[in-house]
Amino acid sequence: MAHLFGENEWKMLMSDLNAPLHDQFLRLFAEHEPALRTFVRSLVPSLAAASEVMQEVAVVLWQKFAEFDETRDFRRWAFGVARYEALAYLRDKARDRHVFDDELVGRLADEAAAAGHRHDAQREALDACLQKLPEPQRALVLAAYTKGTRMDELAAQRGQTAMSLYKVLHRIRQALLECVRHTIAREEVT
Amino acid sequence: MKDHWHEQIQRYVNGQSSEEEATALHEALAEDAELRALYLDYINLDVALGAAAAVAAAVTEIEAGQAGSRARPFPLLSSHPWRWIAATAACAVLVVLLMPPGHRDSSRRRPDFAVTISSAQRAIARLSYEPGTSIPTWMSPTASLLDQPRFPQ
Fold first, then answer.
1. How far apart, in whole angstroms, are the C-alpha atoms of residue B21 and residue A20?
2. Which of B16, B42, B48 sits opposite A126 (nearest CB)?
């Protein structure tokens, strides 16, 4: 893929770009990308599926960005596009047992969009909660989420079965979720 | 919220749910707004942990790269520069101590530049003088190249 375009093609492509529009899009997309990814991930059955849908979302958003009215809320607009793309993906995978029915997808989409700011706050609180974890647990959870990690191999390295490793990870994630929820609740009180 | 649903949601997110478990979760999510909020929070945590792991992996990679670039071809010089300074100072002291007393005469501390230059010029002149070779011409493979060319009559 790196050699798809030669130097001249890249120059032509870049000269065609509207640089201020491009910069504005990148700023907005980078700002809202984590919330969009969470939204998409809540509707599709796996991280890989979420990545696939997010690529389509990014392409569509950029293609339509010239028509985007700056006075509108970019986040709301992007969530609408992401919802449409996620539903298109789900229609293709309708036989998968991990796919919700249309009514549930609709509810989750509405509630995920409404929870966007709560999720932003949770992501901000997560860093501090990760620091509160004992080092071996922090290293384990980050290793489990590192791209390319196979859970059976990670379990074997630790002398565990995959099932027992999943249980350890469940406890860590539950502790992290309680930590971020408490952190946000404390901040709201103060 | 019951621990049961914490575990069921995580199993679902990891793709570990059986068909019965997935169906039960779908039905519960359709009825329970609080459970949907928990599900969405787990999804958010999942995505955020993925991002945190990617950042941690990138930092580790950058630190490994910096450690590699810090390795110099002369590690002793870079890691212990004081050793080289001490060795240089010791050599200087030794040179001074081993000098004949006449050379340490305070009257000769200042170098006489004119003498130095003229002696250097004489040395250069000696080097530029080309004495006749002591190797017989028949031993030199290139000696014939210096002969005048001979043309057939």
1. 50
2. B48
Which fold is adopted by the domain A118-189? Answer: Arc Repressor Mutant, subunit A (1.10.10)
Span A140-165, pLDDT tens digits: 999 999 988 999 999 999 999 999 99
Listed by start position, the domains of chain B span 3-70
C-alpha torsion angle, residues A7, A9, A10, A16 (rounded to 10): 150
Residue B7 has pLDDT above 50, yes or no: yes
- Minimum CA–CA partner of A119 in chain B: B44
Task: Let me know: does B7 contact B36? Beta carbons within 8 Å.
Answer: no
Lowest mean pLDDT segment, chosen from A32-41, A146-155, B49-58, B107-116: B107-116
**B37 contact residues in A (CB cutoff 8 A):** 111, 115
Spell out the domain ranges in chain A: 17-114, 118-189
Residue A27 has a pLDDT of 93
Nearest to A34 among B14, B30, B51 (CB): B51
Reported pTM = 0.64
Confidence of residue B93 (pLDDT cuts 50, 70, 90): low
